[in-house]
């Protein structure tokens, strides 16, 4: 199992930016970011492979960027042009395997086994 710790959440004005690091305790191949707003289901936001291949939900394309620092065992979700609809609890997750993530879908929560506690992002 991989232990994940998210940070960087907080309150920001609309149009502002935030950076959400996720520190991993061990080796990971595929990493994803998800979010869940009150009254809504959890949704996939961004995905990255060990080779730095990425994919994003349509709602955040062009605004969010996910990068990976292999040496530091960390991924960073850079968020810009934030909107009130981005308000949610954001979770970092590790994919069960490259094959399983590819099978289930890169932004499908069912493909991820280890999850962080989450960090709150509030945009107003």
Description:
This protein is mainly beta and 124 residues long. Helix content is 6%, strand content 46%. It has one helix spanning 98-104; strands spanning 4-6, 10-12, 18-24, 31-36, 43-48, 54-56, 64-69, 74-79, 88-95, 112-115, 119-123. Strand 4 and strand 5 form a beta hairpin. The chain starts with a strand and ends with a strand.
The main sheet comes to:
7 strands, mixed
Mean pLDDT, to the nearest integer, reads 93
Work out the number of β strands: 11
Order of helices and strands: EEEEEEEEEHEE
Percent helix: under 10%
> What fraction of the residues are assigned to beta strands by DSSP?
over 45%
Structural class: mainly beta
Counting DSSP H or I runs of 4 or more residues, the number of helices is 1
Radius of gyration: 13 Å
The rough form would be described as: globular
**What is the terminal separation in angstroms?**
36 Å
User: Spans of 5+ residues with little confidence (pLDDT < 50)?
Assistant: none
Compile the SSE list and pairings.
Blueprint: E1 4-6, E2 10-12, E3 18-24, E4 31-36, E5 43-48, E6 54-56, E7 64-69, E8 74-79, E9 88-95, H1 98-104, E10 112-115, E11 119-123
Parallel strand pairs: 2-11
Antiparallel strand pairs: 1-3, 3-8, 4-5, 4-9, 5-6, 7-8, 9-10, 9-11
């Amino acid at each position: 199992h991989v232990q994940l710790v998210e940070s960087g959440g907080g309150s920001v004005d609309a149009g502002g930016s935030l950076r959400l690091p996720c520190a991993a305790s061990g080796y990971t191949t595929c990493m994803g970011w998800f979010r869940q707003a009150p009254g809504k289901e959890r949704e996939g936001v961004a995905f990255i492979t060990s080779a730095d291949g990425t994919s994003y939900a349509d709602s955040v394309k062009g605004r969010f960027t996910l990068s990976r620092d292999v040496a530091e065992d960390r991924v960073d979700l850079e968020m810009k042009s934030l909107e009130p609809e981005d308000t949610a609890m954001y979770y970092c997750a590790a994919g069960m395997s490259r094959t399983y993530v590819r099978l289930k879908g890169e932004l499908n929560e069912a493909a991820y086994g280890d999850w962080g506690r989450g960090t709150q992002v509030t945009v107003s």
